[in-house]
Specification:
269 residues; homodimer
């Protein structure tokens, strides 16, 4: 029986051209290609475009098929299988779980990396990566129950002078993406319950929309101003800044349209 | 006068094939291509190989030329200029500074992302990205002066149950790379002064060497065991884990050769 393999290939941020050359080479040499678009999704392309551009038939799996993973593992025992994943390759627990199961079956595995929202957003804003604390994800409240953990993460980071990357909910089953506006609203609602003055109308927040695309929207302003804006199509991400270095203030001013009066005020702190 | 532009292109982690297709397209359409290898370096390739593979002449700048940036900015005023950077595009302050200066001169700028050590290392280890606190960089002590800030970062993350990515010093001018062994030694020396029991001989540490290459070395064990090992050619990175989820322990066991007895012990905590 031929020896199979399972390679996780990161597709990167936005469209079919964010994959690395290494990833594309490997994809094209694969006998079977799987992908899933439920943990995240490439907004700048479609399944059809990807298949045409890569020159490969891709089997797109839903959540249940990915989590069960039997289809993937069965093929990977004897065939050269690739599994395409948005962003970098192993960010979701499901993918780690799949890799462990493959290793347990004696299948050779490999990871080919892709570009990720975790470094793209700081980079676009000109904020220093080593000044970010823990990343958090804001999910839609269910039955008016607001999960406070993102608020706690922001609070803890802010108290340590650190920035927080806030990723926003994506519900693949209902094709629903949280906008930066909804995220701000949810954070203000949590604030109104917690009352620690972490997120107020006058707080400085950064919004990045469509990272990886040709014209990502990158903006920094007070919450009360951002609330009124339309950031366009998904994905949106937020950054709640901690203490800002003068170069970071300059970056937000020049690269993220931070208003003059705010930049001046921040430089004086 | 024609309108110039300056595009920062992330080369990714290891060799000339880690660039994205988008990055390569843009590079090949550029009139002038600059790069620098002093903030980081692609270990799996050479300047010659890059030029041949990309089909472009690349002007490699040293630290002084990059920081002064006059050569780049002058060309970017009227020409389509690309600036190639290791990892994702804007991780070093110098690059952010360069972008701000270009914007101030009315030059159109763009960022094309690359894969980064910041997500690659957690991914290879199967550790969850959102459980990482602040990243730190360990530099060589000068005149026997040991900078304690990496130790403080690890301590603060550990106290909050978070993992720490520890990047290791690279001194381009003397072509010197810190090995994981030296890093461990330095951390133990800092520990012997600080005495907070954050890094001891029995602490669990993870080492990743040559992330992005075909066969990265990925290993998790006690410091006293790792100290004896040879991790091969650079770059090396460390992760000091905080609290581990059972799936993370399983990942370290199966993907990073964490010894059976340690995996069992950790699962019981």
């Amino acid at each position: 029986m031929p020896q199979g393999s399972l390679t996780f290939i990161g597709l990167g941020l936005y469209d079919e051209k964010d994959i690395s050359l290494k990833g594309l080479d490997h994809l094209r040499e694969s006998e079977i290609v799987f992908s899933e678009f439920y943990t995240a999704r490439l907004m700048g392309t479609t399944f059809n475009k990807m298949e045409k551009f890569f020159g490969k038939k891709i089997r797109f799996l839903n959540r249940a098929e990915t989590e069960r993973a039997d289809i993937i593992l069965k093929k990977a025992k004897t065939k050269k299988v690739s599994f395409l994943v948005c962003g970098d390759s192993m960010s979701a627990t499901t993918h780690v779980d799949l890799r462990i199961r493959a290793v347990n079956l004696g299948i050779k595995t490999r990871v080919i990396h892709g570009n990720s929202i975790v470094t793209a957003v700081p980079g676009l804003l000109g904020l220093q990566n080593y000044k970010f604390g823990r990343t958090t994800t804001l999910v839609y409240p269910e039955n008016n129950f607001f999960p406070v953990s993102p608020y706690e993460v922001i609070k803890s980071n802010k108290n340590n002078g650190l920035h927080t990357l806030v990723l926003l909910d994506y519900q693949a089953d209902v094709d629903r993406f949280m906008t930066a506006n909804s995220a701000i609203e949810i954070l203000l609602k949590i604030e109104s319950k917690m009352k620690k003055k972490i997120i107020t109308k006058n707080s400085l927040i950064c919004v990045v929309a469509r990272a990886g695309s040709k014209n990502p929207l990158v903006i920094a302003d007070k919450i009360c101003e951002l609330k009124k804006m339309d950031f366009g199509s998904p994905f949106h991400s937020l950054v709640v800044p901690g203490s800002l270095h003068f170069m970071e203030i300059e970056a937000l001013h020049k690269l993220a349209s931070l208003p003059d009066y705010m930049a001046e005020k921040l430089q004086k702190i």
